[in-house]
Design a protein that fits this description.
The chain is α/β, with parallel strands linked by helices and about 325 residues long. It folds into 2 domains: about 190 residues, Isopropylmalate Dehydrogenase; about 120 residues, 3-Layer(aba) Sandwich (Isopropylmalate Dehydrogenase). The protein contains 11 helices and 12 strands. The chain has a 12-stranded mixed beta sheet with strand order 3-4-2-1-5-12-11-6-7-10-8-9, with helices on both faces. α3 packs across α4. The protein is globular and about 60 Å long. It starts with 5 loop residues before the first strand and ends with a helix. It catalyses: 4-(phosphooxy)-L-threonine + NAD(+) = 3-amino-2-oxopropyl phosphate + CO2 + NADH. Pfam families: PdxA (PF04166). InterPro entries: PdxA (IPR037510), PdxA_fam (IPR005255). GO terms for molecular function: 4-hydroxythreonine-4-phosphate dehydrogenase activity; cobalt ion binding; magnesium ion binding; NAD binding; zinc ion binding. Pathway: Cofactor biosynthesis; pyridoxine 5'-phosphate biosynthesis; pyridoxine 5'-phosphate from D-erythrose 4-phosphate: step 4/5.
């Protein structure tokens, strides 16, 4: 695969991010050029490193070593123990990657896992996660998190909020925005002329006609009716417990769930190691492996790079419009 490289942010250096970057380069080499933005000192010992001055140098360098655009951190990285002194630079690498992709020197952004508590304590990071921070950097009011695996694409309509707050957050305007961004992303990023979207209900059995809750009747169904009239192909609200078996998945291109676990449990059950977090609604492509910092195994050499490899491949494909 040729073209501009993918910018990869280092994530929390005390987690498995450094190991994932090294293993991804070992697997891909020059076949899919990318470069890491981070401190070379944080990489596993023995990692071949080629420090580059600009993204344009990554393709040539990747044939012999992991290309790294150096971003100095104030402290070393101790596996499993995040250091507050490094928090601000973790945030800065994300902003730097966005600058590079928006300037056209990188084709996409792939972010390695951050630790939100460490960033909040060490850098005053006030965002719930990567997704919201990337939207702010891009000047975009609304984005959508899509989980992508070989067997399922699914979007949670609400993300990192307590379950008790989901019904209040699930307003008609919010759900309509999520569905429109999902529809446009399937069309513009994945090349689907008429995307088919299945929409889950919030309550058991999709409310069972109002006997188990009225959100389906009062919130979800009216939005679906309005968007169907505008030409979108939507199914639902459906009972979530019957949406994710093999035959059901053949009937749609993506599913929209009402809350975090309703979306993430099926995708992680179907393909735990290869799921990818994709942000829709940004003016550039951003992917991430669908897992966290894994402090418990950081520095042991046991990190599985499968999700990172899928995230890099998807980023490169979507940026070139050939997914």
């Amino acid at each position: 695969m040729t073209g501009r490289p993918v910018a990869v942010t280092c994530g929390e250096p005390a987690g498995i991010g450094p190991e994932l970057a090294a293993k991804a380069w070992a697997a891909l080499g020059a076949d899919l050029p990318f470069f890491l933005i981070g401190d070379p000192r944080h990489l596993p010992g023995g990692t071949p490193v080629a420090e580059i001055a600009a993204p344009e140098e990554a393709a040539e360098a990747s044939a012999r070593a992991l290309p790294v655009l150096p971003h100095p951190f104030p402290a070393p990285a101790t596996p499993g123990r995040p250091d507050a002194r490094n928090a601000q630079e973790v945030v800065a690498t994300i902003a730097r990657a966005v600058d590079l992709v928006q300037s056209g020197t990188a084709r996409a952004v792939c972010t390695l896992p951050i630790h939100k508590q460490a960033l909040a304590e060490g850098a005053g990071f006030a965002f719930p996660g990567h997704t919201e921070y990337l939207a702010a950097l891009a000047g975009v009011a609304h984005v959508v998190m899509m989980l992508v695996s070989p067997r399922l694409r699914v979007v949670p309509a609400t993300i990192h909020i307590p379950l008790a707050e989901v019904p209040g957050a699930l307003t008609q305007p919010h759900l309509e925005r999520v569905l429109r961004i999902t529809h446009d992303g399937l069309r513009d990023r994945f090349g689907l002329d008429r995307p088919r979207i299945a929409v889950a209900g919030l309550n058991p059995h999709a409310g069972e006609g109002g006997r188990m809750g009225r959100e389906e009747i009062e919130i979800i169904a009216p939005v679906l009716e309005r968007l169907r009239a505008a030409g979108m192909e939507l199914r639902g609200p459906l009972s979530a417990d019957t949406m994710f078996h093999a035959a059901a998945r053949e009937t749609y291109d993506a599913a929209v769930a009402m809350y975090h676990d309703q979306a993430l449990i099926p995708v992680k059950t179907l393909d735990f190691d290869r799921g990818v977090n994709l942000t829709l609604g940004l003016p550039f492509v951003r992917t991430s492996p669908d897992h966290g910092t894994a402090f418990d195994i950081a520095g042991t050499g046991r990190a599985n790079p499968a999700s990172t490899l899928e995230a890099l491949r998807l980023a490169a494909q979507l940026a070139e419009g050939d997914a």
